[in-house]
Amino acid sequence: MDIFVQQLVNGLTLGAVYAIVALGYTMVYGIIQLINFAHGEVVMIGAMVAFTVINALAAGGMPPLVVVLIGTGCAIPVCMLAGYAMERLAYRPLRNAPRLAPLITAIGVSIILQHLAMLVWSRNVMAFPQIIPLTTYNFLGATITGVQIAILSLCFAMMTGLALLVYRTRLGTAMRATAQNPQVARLMGVDVNRVIAATFVIGAALGAVAGVMVGTYYGVAQYTMGSVLGMKAFAAAVLGGIGNIPGAMIGGLLLGVVEALGAGYIGDLTDLCRWGIGPEASCADGGHFILFGSNYQDVFAFVVLILVLVFRPSGLLGERVGDRA
Amino acid sequence: MGFPVLLEVRGLEVSYGGIHAVKGVDLEVREGELVCLIGANGAGKSTTLRAVCGLLPARAGSVRYGGTDIAGVAMHELPRRGLVMVPEGRGIFPQLTVQENLAMGAYTRNDAGIAEDIERRYETFPRLKERRTQVAGTLSGGEQQMLAMGRALMARPKLLLLDEPSMGLAPRLVAKIFEIVRQIASQGVTILLVEQNARLALEVANRGYVMESGNITLSGEAEGLLESPKVREAYLGETA
User: Fold this and answer.
1) Where are the domains of chain A?
2) How many CB atoms lie within 10 A of CB A124?
3) pTM of the predicted model, to two decimals?
4) How is domain A2-311 classified at the CATH fold level?
5) What ipTM was assigned to the predicted interfaces of this complex?
């Protein structure tokens, strides 16, 4: 039971971050039907920029929270610029091209960004300086750290903020209108190019914060960190129904929980000795013969992705495509 | 009429889907007029209208609105200048609520009167008021057309382009829609109406143009066109 609550806490924390990254995929998909495979790299750039700043400031004696905030404050504009630049330079010229062209371009942008990051920051893993004291709290028999609480609250604050932006403001209404019918939105006076650019920029800003959170959570950042994280967040977006904003939030949280619970129980469940079919030499004296350990954690996201694509391709809250004008 | 020309189309040619659909159209709409462009399916009426508001590129010719050439003006600039179109098929935003659709019509405005204008639309279209929080995709065809027209009015247009407002509607609703068109015109909005239903269009319009395979073949006062044997035979289903 303790493991269950513990993994639930861990899963929700990670899932909240997936949700934030998934929002970047789903918003862009919703508005121009493009899967922006380079979004994971934006998240990576956010982490790398923040780590660079945080490492530079770590010795300065400033309060850790201030250091992290300054790092994040530097990461956000850099990522927003990256998001704007990729839309303007790579995707906008292909707006009316066959759908395969921007998709392949997105993969190209992803590779370019990853290698640029490698040139800037080298192949080495960057470590998060030991500045945040480990504080833990007891929660229903599980341990929750201060960082986890911070990540969870920040993620929920960002999701609320985004929901307000999309459903309560003029820009948000214009974004949804553009997603549903760009030509008519134009007839209403919406500068569709600006709205699309704004979508990229907002998604990138969220991604930057997500990058800092992931980096802080694991304590490391590297130029390759965006690929798997990006693919998982993409899986979360598909799980929730790509193009659907509440879907990305639910999909992210759910995926994080599935992954954490999977990692928590897979060793136990694939212990052949438990089922009485393990080799005797290993199972003697309560020994184990574990087929899949928790290092298979990353598999769950993609198992979920495959299951969704097979059984419910439109996702949990998927938009019924027939409703589009 | 002595009123100044609001829209002036000269020698307009448009190719659409590989077809030379509009082959040199001249037409003008004066301030305060309700002008209709009628003709059979595929005559090039909607293509003409789409080229006027920039939805389709013109191959040749000029479109002047309020005295300036609008060929190089971005489409999203036009509503700011008072030129608003209700597209064929209504073009409502199906997943926005009725109220959000109306608010989108006022996207170019930032004055204080928007909420008041929305209420005014609800007075004209009480059905929309009942359904203000419903997503627009759940409305019937007639309600969607009313929403599309109400939304266009939210921009406070000087010139309203209506593309086949009666399309796909039951006869009773068609009459209602034309009644609304007449009402809008009486409020001083200039209208260019593209319509297949020639009789109803000519009955509400001041003047009309008849289009046939990409060319204007007849034009004149609406009453005169209604009397014209050629129009009666070809578009009103009467044998001369």
Assistant:
1) 2-311
2) 9
3) 0.91
4) ABC transporter involved in vitamin B12 uptake, BtuC (1.10.3470)
5) 0.92
